Amino acid sequence: MKALIIVTNHTEFGDAKTAPTGLWLSELTHFYDVFEKAGVQMEIVSPKGGKITIDQRSLGFFVVDRATKRRHQDPAFMALLDNTKSITQVRWDDYDVVYFAGGHGAMWDFAEDAALHAHTAAFYESGKVVSAVCHGVAALQNVKLSDGSYLVAGKRGTAFAYFDETIAGVKSHVPYNLEKRLKQRGMHYSKALVPLKGHTVADGRLITGQNPNSATETAQKTLDALHAA
Fold this sequence. Notes:
By secondary structure, this protein is an alpha/beta fold. Helices cover 31% and strands 18% of the residues.
């Protein structure tokens, strides 16, 4: 089995140079840990390829966990983010699951990349597993299947809650309300009763997690779906 992990290239909130963003590291590392333990091969890519920027807030004292810190201090692991391939430089047919890691940057490049959406639609329609966490779910909002319907239409799912953007201190910076967008596309959206608490939804071959605290459960449910597919 092989997993394709996609991370964001986008590094700032719009044109606000004083508000950097990027990949939320734990949303990559927690998935990676689960799949590595299960013996699944993985490749980390990005929409444009190249070096990946880490959102420094994800390394903050109050949010970073021991497992993520260990990965961040591992030169071999961090080297995987130094020069990623682009999504067009890999054969999607070679993989059994695609996973979209989050970070606010994903609200831009994941949402706007037509090639990414086309690959994702074909991947899902071929019977494979699609997984995403937090703002990584932004990749799915504009994915249309061959019949013209949105991939998320009629599916149970989740993503970062709009209320929680206030807690994160970036509500005035985000380009749109992801929760609302997904509902408009027909997703049966749900979220944890307590803000920022972990919440993961599996609907067949579509698995989505609400926030960084959902990344490990999202990985585990993705692995379950992969074995069932």
